[in-house]
């Protein structure tokens, strides 16, 4: 539906990509999106745009004339967006730093006036009406020129944040959130307290939380991207392994699996297990059988949730008294899903008697206790996999 066009020189420092939609003059379409990490979007439209989280209306934008809408970070939620009219003909995705530099960041007064929906962070969501006309079927050059005009008019009225924040944000993004805040402040010649206060005022969240979002975004990109920068030796080997690809394309139902046919079981994670595998009788039976047979039982990230109801042969919780790890409470808080998930992995492991330990957020960490192997987060997958191989050699 969208065609990517070259980013014009005036916007290259700020815009990651520009997409043009091949749509009729009038549309009425609903799209479902799930966004994680930080995403900054701007689009030119004329008509109505609505965003729902579940059954709750979270955003409504109506423009009788051509307008440009700019939003900030979209948190990790399922959002249904409906477009009616001439919507979505030009879309720009900004870098985090570019968003702040080009459009500025609203201070406290701007935040109070703006009152954006809760799904948008930092607190920046504005619509700007343009004099220039815009319609479906325009050439790519004409459409991009309208977008440039929109962004230029937006930048003229923006509340620009202090220069020190631009430098701090630049270093945070360059290092994907893996920074030492005290070193940044020392390099800028300001106190950490002053920088944190200014950062929180203009960005809408603390530097620590912002860095966690950057770290998560990098981790998520690494998991889903086919770009060379996000590939590792392990992912390249996996994609080139014909047997592995064949197995992936022909998976089996857990209920149809016999534990005797396998040497180990490895649960790779994702939020899904908190709702399904944690309560699935076939999964619980598989774990208990493999563990009782002395075979490796491994789980990474959110997957230790599958151990919730698993028990040993004497009826005790399988994790009781064992050294375990899993997705931490602070990592769940960083992705802003603490109030969404049915339970927190860290809390559940502790409640079942596990001796929970962890590393810093998003850092590799895995523990082996007998034939039970657990990993903290996506970055811990390889450590956990190697631990399984060590046992079954």
Describe this structure in words.
- The structure is a single chain.
- By secondary structure, this protein is of the alpha+beta class.
- The chain has 3 domains: 2-156, Jelly Rolls, CATH 2.60.120; 163-224, Homeodomain-like (Arc Repressor Mutant, subunit A), CATH 1.10.10; 232-392, Class I glutamine amidotransferase (GATase) domain (Rossmann fold).
- The protein has 13 helices and 13 strands.
- The chain has helices at residues 96-103, 108-114, 140-156, 163-174, 181-188, 192-203, 207-224, 233-240, 242-249, 281-292, 329-334, 345-351, 381-392; strands at 2-5, 15-21, 27-35, 40-53, 56-74, 77-94, 120-129, 265-267, 297-300, 323-324, 355-356, 366-369, 372-375.
- The strands form 3 sheets. Strands 1, 2, 3, 4, 5, 6 and 7 form a 7-stranded antiparallel β-sheet that branches. Strands 8-9-13-12 form a 4-stranded mixed β-sheet.
- Helix 1 (96-103) packs antiparallel against helix 4.
- The N and C termini lie far apart (50 Å).
Record keyword descriptors for this entry.
393 residues, alpha+beta, Arc Repressor Mutant, subunit A, Rossmann fold, seven-stranded antiparallel β-sheet, 13 helices, 13 strands, 25% strand
Task: Describe the secondary structure blueprint for this structure.
Layout (H helix, E strand, L loop, with lengths): L1 E4 L9 E7 L5 E9 L4 E14 L2 E19 L2 E18 L1 H8 L4 H7 L5 E10 L10 H17 L6 H12 L6 H8 L3 H12 L3 H18 L8 H8 L1 H8 L15 E3 L13 H12 L4 E4 L22 E2 L4 H6 L10 H7 L3 E2 L9 E4 L2 E4 L5 H12 L1
Parallel strand pairs: 8-9, 9-13, 10-11
Antiparallel strand pairs: 1-2, 2-6, 3-6, 4-5, 4-6, 5-7, 12-13
Helix pairs in contact: 1-4
């Amino acid at each position: 539906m969208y065609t990517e066009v070259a980013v014009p020189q005036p916007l290259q420092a700020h815009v990651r990509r520009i997409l043009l939609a091949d749509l009729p003059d009038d549309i009425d379409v609903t799209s479902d999106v799930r966004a994680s990490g930080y995403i900054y979007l701007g689009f030119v439209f004329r008509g109505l745009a609505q965003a729902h989280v579940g059954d709750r209306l979270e955003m409504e934008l109506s423009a009788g004339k051509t307008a440009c809408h700019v939003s900030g970070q979209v948190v990790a939620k399922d959002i249904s967006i409906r477009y009616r009219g001439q919507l979505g003909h030009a879309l720009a995705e900004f870098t985090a730093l570019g968003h702040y530099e080009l459009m500025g960041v609203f201070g406290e007064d701007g935040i109070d006036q703006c009152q954006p929906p809760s799904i948008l962070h930092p607190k920046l969501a504005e619509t700007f009406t343009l004099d220039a006309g815009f319609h479906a079927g325009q050439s790519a050059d004409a459409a991009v020129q309208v977008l440039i005009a929109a962004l230029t008019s937006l930048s003229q009225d923006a509340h620009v944040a202090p220069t020190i924040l631009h430098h701090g944000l630049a270093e945070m993004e360059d290092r994907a959130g893996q920074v030492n805040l005290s070193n940044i402040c020392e390099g800028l010649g300001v106190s950490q307290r002053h920088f944190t206060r200014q950062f929180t005022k203009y960005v809408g969240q603390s530097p620590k939380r912002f860095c966690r979002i950057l770290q998560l975004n990098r981790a998520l990109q690494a998991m889903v991207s086919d770009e060379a920068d996000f590939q590792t030796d392990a992912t390249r080997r996996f994609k080139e392994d014909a047997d592995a690809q064949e197995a992936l394309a022909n998976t089996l139902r857990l209920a149809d699996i016999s534990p005797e046919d396998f040497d180990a079981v490895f649960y790779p994670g994702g939020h899904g297990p908190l709702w399904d595998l944690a309560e699935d009788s076939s999964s619980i039976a598989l774990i208990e059988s493999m563990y009782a047979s002395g075979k490796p039982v491994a789980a990474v990230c959110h997957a230790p949730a599958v151990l919730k109801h698993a028990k040993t042969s004497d009826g005790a919780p399988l994790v009781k008294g064992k050294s375990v790890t899993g997705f931490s409470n602070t990592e769940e808080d960083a992705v802003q899903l603490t109030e969404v998930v049915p339970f927190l992995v860290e809390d559940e492991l502790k409640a079942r008697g596990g001796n929970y330990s962890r590393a810093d957020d998003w850092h590799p960490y895995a523990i082996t206790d007998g034939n039970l192997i657990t990993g903290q987060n996506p970055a811990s997958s390889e450590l956990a996999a190697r631990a399984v191989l060590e046992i079954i050699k």
